[in-house]
Amino acid sequence: MPYYHICPDCGAALDPDEKCNCHDRRPAAYCFMCAMPLYPEDALYDQDPAYEIDGHVLCEDCVDKYVEKNCRKTLRR
Fold it and tell me: What confidence tier does 74 reach under pLDDT thresholds 50, 70, 90?
């Protein structure tokens, strides 16, 4: 039977005496709309999806909202 515990913040499976390093990671940027931290790629984790529009960094959840609010033009016939 394996003995491990789960990090309550990131969900990583850790050995009994192992301390999680999720708090050691520093975000590369923050989403312009929701202020969610966006982390770069490292040896253990993939990069968070991020987009830059009009000089603003956005998370993937906020891209559609930003485009609808700021970049949408009504076409007239």
Answer: low
Query: At 70, which helix (H) or strand (E)?
Result: helix 63-70
What's the domain range around 18? 5-70
Full 3-state SS string of 20-69: CCCCCCCCCEECCCCCCEECCCCCCCCCCCEEEECCEEEECCCHHHHHHH
Q: Is residue 77 part of a domain?
A: no
pLDDT, tens digit (0-9, with 9 covering 90-100), for 4-48: 888 887 778 888 888 888 778 788 899 999 999 888 887 777 888
